[in-house]
Design a protein that fits this description.
This protein is α/β, with parallel strands linked by helices. The protein has two domains: about 70 residues, no CATH class; about 240 residues, no CATH class. The protein has 20 helices and eight strands. The strands form two sheets. The protein has a five-stranded mixed β-sheet, with no helix packed on it. Strands 2-4-3 form a three-stranded antiparallel β-sheet. Strand 5 and strand 6 form a beta hairpin. Helix 14 crosses helix 18 and helix 16 packs antiparallel against helix 18. It starts with a strand and ends with a helix.
């Protein structure tokens, strides 16, 4: 199997107890079958604890229960009790692998870093550019702990290598399009909105061709998409017919607002994800009293002001969007569902841009550590929540 790792992968080292935003708190912890079997066999007080704190979920399998939103084995020093006692056989695979995201597509495996890890997010922000996957070569016959961490954790299955090749080439073409003529991006802070719209239109048209089993036509679609290609589809809703309206964001403000209030804001959010809670509170403070058109105009004006004061912000937003596209675009290999991942990464990027503006208006200094924490909190709430993804896509299906 050919393995490719994201170009800043080697810079990552877990900072353990020094991490300000531990991954042992705020979400459910999945337990792989092998570790779960070991847990069930463990005897004594520790074995009793393991059995008490694991449950089997119909959708996810074995899950470690949390106490107050924290892993029961997270100690006051910020370290894992099981790892401190060298009980590696009782530590779930995901705990050893995270934030590494390793996905196999048949004979190819791609490994990136999840930006829900605040340290990985910092590394990402230290070099704002178009990141690339670099081939990783290691002797599989030797004992190499790092090799274990790059083995596929997720598998995207299909038996259509020609389609996989098309997706990978297509992804590079999209990235070429996104990063073409970026020298002036700081002077055109709204350019990223146009680029995101173009990519969404592109995925929409290709999805329609794939849905009608017209792969040859789908592969012939070019970026940016001719408006006639969108008008060709008689079932296109108002959303798609009004793509050229310059005043709007990629998605209607009302839709994003519904996601924030209805899909991200819960009573448990302050405890489980305090960063996300703070972002939502700041958003409500700055935008909560505005009507949709007012909010869009207000955001557009303040986004320009933000980008004038922090010149690197447009490039950060573009790098974030393109990084998410790198991670998720080829997942369509299994389902042929291109539009879903593109919608979700567009939503994630627009929420990021909204929260940047509201935090700026709230007087926060947008330095590297602040933005890294913001990205990590958002990723945990949005990209690591199956319920959010499912509900968001259903909402967009109804509205669009």
């Amino acid at each position: 199997m050919q393995t490719y790792r994201i170009d800043f992968y080697d810079n990552f080292r877990c900072i353990a107890s020094e991490c300000p935003y531990t991954c042992c708190k705020g979400w459910g912890l999945l337990v792989d079958d092998k570790t779960y079997a070991n847990m069930r066999k463990e005897k004594g007080i520790l074995g009793l604890m393991l059995r008490l704190f694991t449950r089997v979920d119909v959708e996810n399998g074995a899950v470690l229960r949390t106490i107050g939103g924290k892993c029961p084995f997270l100690e006051k020093d910020g370290l894992c009790r099981l790892q401190k006692e060298d009980r590696q056989e009782l530590v779930a695979d995901i705990c050893n692998l995270y934030p590494r995201r390793s996905i196999s597509y048949g004979s190819i495996c791609e490994v990136s870093l999840e930006l829900s890890c605040v340290h990985a997010a910092r590394l990402f922000l230290q070099d704002i550019k178009r990141h690339v996957f670099v081939e990783y070569q290691a002797d599989e016959n030797t004992q190499n702990p790092e090799l274990e961490k790059t083995k596929p954790y997720y598998e995207v299955k299909n038996n259509d290598p020609e389609f996989l090749l098309h997706l990978m080439k297509d992804r590079e073409n999209i990235l070429d399009f996104l990063w073409r003529v970026t020298d002036s991006i700081e002077d055109e802070p709204l350019a990223i909105i146009g680029k995101m719209q173009d990519v969404l239109d592109y995925a929409y048209v290709k999805q329609n061709y794939f849905g009608r089993d017209s792969q040859a036509y789908a592969k012939a679609v070019e970026l940016p998409v001719d408006k006639k290609e969108i008008e060709k589809w008689q079932d296109a809703g108002e959303f798609w017919r009004n793509r050229a309206e310059e005043t709007r964001m990629v998605f209607p403000f009302l839709l994003l607002n519904e996601l924030i209030y209805g899909r991200l804001s819960y009573t448990c959010t302050p405890k489980r994800n305090p960063v996300m809670h703070e972002l939502i509170s700041t958003y409500k403070k700055q935008f909560g009293g505005l009507y949709e058109k007012e909010a869009e105009g207000f955001w557009k004006e303040k986004w320009k002001k933000l980008c004038k004061e922090y010149r690197e912000i447009p490039r950060i937003a573009l790098a974030y969007y393109s990084y998410l596209l790198q991670q998720t675009y080829c997942c369509a290999y299994e389902t042929y569902y291109l539009i879903g991942p593109v919608i979700l990464i567009s939503v994630c990027t627009e929420l990021f841009m909204l929260f940047l503006v509201s935090s700026f208006l709230d007087g926060q200094i947008l330095e590297e550590t602040t933005i890294a924490s913001m990205i990590a909190g958002m990723e945990r709430a949005v990209r690591h929540s199956r319920s959010f993804e499912k509900e968001a896509l259903e909402l967009f299906r109804k509205k669009m």
